[in-house]
Amino acid sequence: MRAAARGGGRQSIALSGRQDGPPGLWDATVSRRRFLQRSAAAAFGLSAASLLAACSDTPVPGGQSGNLAPGGLPLARPDNPVKLPIYPGNRAIRSGLKPEEGPLQLYNWAEYVNAEVIESFEKKYGVGVQLSTFATIDEAIAKLAAGAVGYDVFVPTQPYVSMLVAGEILQPLNHSYVPNLEGNVWRSLQNPWYDAGARYTVPYTIFSTGIAWRNDHLPDYDPEDYSNPYQSFWESTEIAGKVAMLDDQREGLGMALLRNGITDVNTGSQEQIDGARDALKELIDRVNLRFYTNDYQRIADASIWLHQAWSGDMTAIGYYLPEGTPTSVVSYWWPEDGRGMMGNDTLAVLNGAPNPVLAHLFLNHILDVETAFLNMEFTGYQQPLTEMTPEAVLEAELVPENLTSTIIREPQFERGFLQGPLSAEGMGVWESAWSEVKAS
Amino acid sequence: MSQDSPLWRWLAAPGVLWLVLFVVVPGYAVLAVAMGEIDTLLQPVPAWNPFEWNVGFVKEAFSSVVPGGVYWSATRNTLLYVAATVALCFAIGYPVAYYIACKAGRTKGLLLALIFLPFWVSYLMRMLAWIGLLSADGYVNEALGWVGLGGNDWLNGNPFSVIAALTYGYIPYFILPVYAGLDRIDLRLLEAARDLGASRPWTFLRVTLPLSWPSVLAGIVLIVLPMFGDYYTNDLISGSPNTNMLGNTVNLLVQGGSQKNLGAAMVLVLMTVLAVGMLYYLYETNRQSRRRA
């Protein structure tokens, strides 16, 4: 029997910034300025180069929330790819080095890698691997920021990458050890906009955020019947109490943005986020909305019939359904044209890793096609590899036939709305909006 | 050895050390985080030096929990649920404690053990068991169905379920001190009251109840303090934003990336409110013991 997929761990992948109280409650601008000062002052030893970058690009107060990510680096966007800086004291390792003796220290989300994948790496290189896990990205970053040393490989959620680079928590990659990046990964993610040139990260898993429902309880429901499919949540008053959203600020507010017709899921606009917040507050009242991160469990036991859901959790739904319930009772919708919300996690080598060569080799191992299928058997999550098509995943019996919509195709990905870093100010806007939603 | 030998004072040393290590230092750390800043990795930077304190978060926290504030509904829910739970604990717990202390006779030990028994099961497990009982097709609805009251949605953000679960979870902490207080009452005082012509109910109202009042207050303090910080009962039994309590708000803020400073400030708000209650308790017990002396 396979262990629970990672779902539960996603609770806190939401990016967050400092809380800006509602206007008038207190002088929010002072704190915000202090925050930015500290960003520029670089508590974690930003180099002169990044300081210059930060200074030349000071956000305009009151405007579209600036264009700096927390940490002071320019804010990456699909139309504005960012080459993350290389700092003088933090260079990539040289090519052609021999692997260390290990053991490799992997710092990963709980339940987010197949033990057999680790075993095959151990066998291949004759080294041991020690796995340490975390449950929330906050917890992990707090530990790494406090100077936890000894880990080699880290699995940061993508929106946090630029911040971690600015804090010199990650070390630049030497691609000569990771040929599978060029060999197997989707072209667009070999050179992603959030990390142009894949200087610090290679992609781990990718997922879409769509709509899951129990078609045995909702035989007449189809998101496609609505001109805006997300609107169907607001119209589900008849099944109040059976409707849930992911307990995650980026997903929850993100879906409300899409429902309001805004496709920039990384927006920092106060007005747009306020609109999303109000929509969610309305939704809470209309359908007695619940917030969960265990969408796979809720859909499986039918305590929820209509759930905003992560694709990977639905891919693996068969493992959670009660005995005798066929996977065909679950449906998953994500726009066929790819114009829906997506997120991804990355793999990186930590600055100061004791086994940097092994760490690179581990990254390469994960990007191996065979490994990726083996890994998906356990995690349920797809990797953005050219050979990992819906057809291939179906063929490998890793997804039921009626749920192949949970697997993203490369052309869809190129049109999709990928969650990326928020600006330092934008984070405050998102965070306070989400707190208000959760406190309503 | 004389009364004021320094040895006696040294006996307090382990307690003082404990207090400093596990109360004063962490308390000051919370204060320093609440008064601190945030760094480039969204980690709170505590301000250990009072001259560097930034009161913005604390101000924000205080203004958010009053009527009109962002978290007012959480404050309101907390006050309502805690008050209702205390009332229920008193209504159920006092008679139980009274029975065990005054009427149980030889079964006293057994009854006390039974009160303790649920502690052998983890709090989370006991709450999870409630989910089974209260679910739509659970035993509670089934039983109510026999009298035509079935079909209730207990787990759907229902404040009554939260109050019931809180009562269930905390009532043993109320019963035990009340039992101890009742058990200590000098029976000769009750006899004296009867001899002087007081009826049984009158004896209870004028003698037993006032004498047990300090232990009732102790029981209330014991259950109110943790309830103000409780969030998991609510998470498990409700999961709806509509029943949020302040503990849930602190949990959200502390786990919410860069809002840890505000979360710490919110803890300070809670501590301030609880300190007021605690001072009343100390004043009251002090007055009682002085009266007795």
Summarize the structure in words.
The complex is a heterodimer of chains A (about 450) and B (about 290). Chain A has helices at about 30-40, 50-55, 115-125, 135-145, 160-165, 180-185, 185-190, 230-235, 250-260, 270-285, 295-300, 310-315, 355-365, 370-380, 390-395, 410-415, 425-440; strands at about 105-110, 130-135, 155, 170, 200-215, 245, 290, 305-310, 330-335, 340-350, 415-420. In chain A, strand 1 (about 105-110), helix 3 and strand 2 (about 130-135) form a beta-alpha-beta unit. The radius of gyration of chain A is 21 Å and the shape is globular. Chain A folds into 2 domains: about 95-205 and about 345-420, 3-Layer(aba) Sandwich (D-Maltodextrin-Binding Protein, domain 2); about 210-335, D-Maltodextrin-Binding Protein, domain 2, CATH 3.40.190. In chain A, helix 9 packs across helix 10 (about 270-285), helix 9 (about 250-260) packs across helix 17 and helix 10 (about 270-285) runs parallel beside helix 17. By secondary structure, chain A is of the alpha/beta class. The two termini of chain A are about 40 Å apart. In chain A, strands 1, 2, 3, 4, 5, 6, 7, 8, 9, 10 and 11 form an 11-stranded mixed β-sheet that branches. The longest helix of chain A has 18 residues, at about 270-285. By secondary structure, chain B is mainly alpha-helical. Chain B has a domain at about 70-255: MetI-like fold (Orthogonal Bundle), CATH 1.10.3720.10. Helix content of chain B is about 70%, strand content about 0%. Chain B has 13 helices and 2 strands, in the order ααββααααααααααα. Chain B has helices spanning about 5-10, 15-35, 55-65, 70-105, 110-115, 125-135, 140-145, 160-185, 185-195, 200-230, 230-235, 245-255, 260-290; strands at about 35-40, 45. A two-stranded antiparallel ribbon of chain B has the order 1-2. In chain B, strand 1 and strand 2 (about 45) form a beta hairpin. In chain B, helix 3 (about 55-65) packs across helix 13 and helix 4 (about 70-105) packs across helix 10. The chains are: A alpha/beta (about 450), B mainly alpha (about 290).
